[in-house]
Design goal:
Number of helices: 18
Number of strands: 0
Distance between the termini: 17 Å
Largest sheet: none
């Protein structure tokens, strides 16, 4: 027998969804065209009709804990075919963002990241941080060298010998880079791990309650096997390619995804080479890893630029809010400042290169520090939801 469910409407949640891009929510009259139109919805218990009903009734607890909201890729087919213009794709996008904020800890930081009034602080804090350490790097080299004489196996300077070489480490010490980003990246990973634990428990409980799985408990070993099966689907963007209305989003999304994978590999290799083999940069442009870095950087700029262009071209059909622009501009800035830093260095324009590197560091800080709280967190949650759907034999 199906368990009884007591509906507890949350009017604030309805207002929140409408304010985050789902303003057309109340136009829905539950005709189910959206579920029929969706090419990736399961035949049994499809979406997004039931999500539109739950959102209209303000059933926040039911929606936030549902893995189905993450299986939607916002392709736009349902919105194009909706006879009432209810734009289910935009509504589900808004619900997903509410979920990101709901699972995020600490809440105050999540609210700050998504408040445009707090943007000057989000940019100003790392700007001051990096300015202080840049001053130390450029003006206290001798002092820092003496301090590092007491640290075995490590030297203060991480640059090639020869004053003619322009290296960003002369402007901002590699030690300060790692002192900043290793803890921030570690904190982001820990936050995601804690959030995903709650997230997976919630969507499993929801799936059991609604009869969408034959699993009675979570088996994380089996889920890891499910993740391995899901990864090719994500890398090939199979779900994006099943859609029609916004199929043009597939290529730029793939470019950005593979760019980040490439840049992660490059960063990991250079980190290991620096600390294990004591081989500092800058590296030759003929270095294969450098080739990967340059290709990834160019792809990141082109891919994010195409995503911005798509948003601008469809501004009358697709709602774009601050949360969308924040991450789009941040990703584009990350790629652009990285490439400009290198181009200025190769052109022997030291201080121009340092300036762009300064902006690049601020962009990286914002990406890492606020990753669990921004729209980009959808990559982690969607991957987890797709993995759970594979593991749970979604019915």
């Amino acid at each position: 027998m199906t368990e009884k469910y007591l509906a507890q409407p949350d009017l604030d949640f309805i207002a929140q969804v409408r304010g985050l891009g789902g303003e057309t929510l109340k136009k829905c009259y539950q005709c189910a065209t959206c579920s029929v139109a969706c090419p990736i919805a399961p035949e049994d218990s499809p979406f997004p009709r039931k999500e539109m009903i739950a959102a209209s009734w303000g059933l926040k607890d039911k929606l936030i804990c549902s893995g189905d909201i993450w299986l939607c890729h916002e392709c736009g087919d349902c919105s194009d075919l909706c006879p009432r213009g209810a734009a289910p794709g935009d509504v589900l996008s808004a619900i997903r963002f509410v979920a990101i904020t709901e699972y995020a800890r600490p809440k105050a930081l999540a609210n700050a990241v998504n408040d445009p009034k707090k943007l000057p602080f989000l940019l100003g804090i790392p700007a001051i941080w990096f300015a202080i350490f840049a001053f130390i790097t450029m003006n206290a080299g001798e002092t820092m060298t003496k301090i590092f004489e007491f640290i075995p196996f490590f030297d203060w300077a991480h640059v090639h010998e020869g004053g003619h070489v322009i290296a960003q480490a002369n402007f901002f010490s590699t030690w300060f880079v790692d002192l900043t980003f290793v803890p921030i990246f570690t904190a982001a990973v820990i936050i995601f791990v804690l959030n995903l634990k709650n997230f997976l428990n919630d969507i499993h409980e929801n799936a059991v309650l609604e009869g969408k799985t034959d699993k009675t408990s979570l088996d994380f070993k089996a889920m890891l096997q499910a993740l391995i099966k899901v990864i090719p689907t994500i890398l090939k963007h199979d779900k994006f390619n099943e859609c029609e209305s916004n199929k043009d989003r597939s290529t730029p999304h793939m470019m950005v995804l593979f760019s980040f994978i490439g840049l992660f590999i490059v960063t990991a290799i250079f980190f290991l080479v620096l600390y294990l083999f004591q081989t500092p940069g800058p590296y030759s442009q003929l270095n294969p890893v450098k080739w990967l870095a340059n290709i990834s950087g160019v792809a990141l700029v082109i891919g994010s630029g195409m995503m911005i262009k798509n948003r601008l071209d469809k501004k009358d059909d697709q709602i774009t809010l601050y949360k969308d622009w924040f991450i789009l501009v941040l990703v584009f800035s990350l790629g652009a400042t990285g490439l400009l830093t290198e181009m200025a260095r190769l052109a022997h324009m030291a201080y121009v290169s340092y300036f762009f590197y300064y902006l690049h560091l601020i962009a990286i800080f914002n990406l890492f520090a606020f990753l669990p709280f921004s729209k980009m967190a959808h990559f982690v949650y969607r991957t987890a939801a797709m993995t759970y759907a594979e593991y749970s034999n979604r019915t």
